[in-house]
C-alpha cells in the first residue's frame, strides 16, 4: 500500500512534464490492476478497530484524493461500451469486456455501481444509442430499487419519492432535520419494532447507500458534478 502510494505521488508530479507521456513504466492495465487491489486493501483496513482505522485513514487520504483527481467516469465507461458493442464477435471483444471491469474496479466512485454497469453492458442493444439506453436503464433500476426499499421498510411512498428526488436535485441526501422523519411509518404500540430510533437509522443507512449508488449516473448528475 505504501509503495503504490509513492507511485501515485510521483506520477502526480511527473504528469506535469510533457516528456512523461508515453514513457510510463506501468501499462494502463497494470496500473488499473494495482489500483484495484490498493482500493480493496484500503476498504478492508477501514473496517478494522477505530485506532488502526484512524492511523490508516490519515496515512492514505491524500493518496485516495490523488486517485479521485484522475479517475475514470461514467462517460469514459460508456465509450468503452460503445467500442465493445462495435467489436462484439471479434477476437478483441473479450479483452474489451474485461477492460471495462478492470476500469470499474480501479475507480473509487464506480466500484459500488459495478453490477449496474456490467448488467447494462451485457444487455445493451446492437444498434441503439448507448447514451439513451443507459439513461433509460439507470432510471428503471433506480425506480425499482427505491420501490423495494419503500416496500420492505413500509415507508410513506409519496413522501419518500419526494425526499429522494430532492436529494438528487440538490446533490446531497439530507439525513438531519424533520424531513427524513416524515417518510417513516407511524409506530404502533402493537408493532414488533417499537424502537423508532433503530428504524430511522436503518432507513437512513439504506437510503444513503441507494443515493451513493445512483448519484452521478444520470446526465443531470454528471453535469452538476
Short description:
The protein is mostly helical and 225 residues long. Helices cover 68% and strands 0% of the residues.
Structure description:
This protein has 225 residues and is an all-alpha fold. 68% of the residues lie in helices and 0% in strands. The radius of gyration is 21 Å and the shape is globular.
Keywords:
mainly alpha; 2 domains; 10 helices; 0% strand; 225 residues
List the helices and strands and how they pair.
Layout: H1 2-14, H2 28-46, H3 50-70, H4 74-86, H5 93-105, H6 114-123, H7 130-153, H8 157-170, H9 196-214, H10 219-224
Helix pairs in contact: 1-3, 2-3, 2-5, 4-5, 7-9
Shape verdict: globular
Measured as a percent range, the helix fraction is: 55-70%
The low-confidence parts are none
SS-based structural class?
mainly alpha
**How many domains, in number, for the residues?**
2
- Based on CA atoms alone, the radius of gyration comes out at 21 Å
Amino acid at each position: 500500500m505504501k509503495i503504490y502510494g509513492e507511485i501515485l505521488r510521483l506520477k502526480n508530479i511527473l504528469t506535469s512534464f510533457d516528456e512523461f507521456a508515453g514513457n510510463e513504466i506501468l501499462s494502463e492495465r497494470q496500473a488499473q490492476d494495482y489500483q484495484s487491489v490498493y482500493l480493496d486493501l484500503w476498504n478492508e483496513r477501514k473496517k478494522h478497530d477505530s485506532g488502526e482505522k484512524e492511523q490508516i485513514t490519515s496515512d492514505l487520504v491524500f493518496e485516495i484524493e490523488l486517485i479521485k483527481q484522475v479517475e475514470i467516469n461514467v462517460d469514459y465507461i460508456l465509450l468503452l461500451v460503445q467500442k465493445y458493442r462495435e467489436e462484439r464477435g471479434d477476437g478483441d471483444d473479450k479483452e474489451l469486456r474485461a477492460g471495462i471491469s478492470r476500469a470499474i474496479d480501479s475507480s473509487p466512485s464506480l466500484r459500488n455501481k459495478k453490477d449496474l454497469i456490467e448488467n447494462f453492458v451485457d444487455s445493451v442493444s446492437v444498434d441503439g444509442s448507448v447514451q439513451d439506453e443507459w439513461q433509460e436503464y439507470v432510471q428503471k433500476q433506480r425506480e425499482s430499487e427505491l420501490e423495494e426499499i419503500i416496500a420492505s421498510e413500509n415507508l410513506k411512498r409519496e413522501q419518500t419519492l419526494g425526499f429522494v428526488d430532492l436529494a438528487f436535485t440538490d446533490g446531497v441526501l439530507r439525513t438531519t432535520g424533520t424531513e427524513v422523519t416524515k417518510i417513516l411509518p407511524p409506530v404502533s404500540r402493537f408493532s414488533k419494532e417499537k424502537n423508532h430510533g433503530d428504524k430511522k437509522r436503518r432507513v437512513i443507512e439504506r437510503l444513503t447507500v441507494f443515493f451513493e449508488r445512483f448519484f452521478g449516473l444520470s446526465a443531470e448528475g454528471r453535469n452538476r458534478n
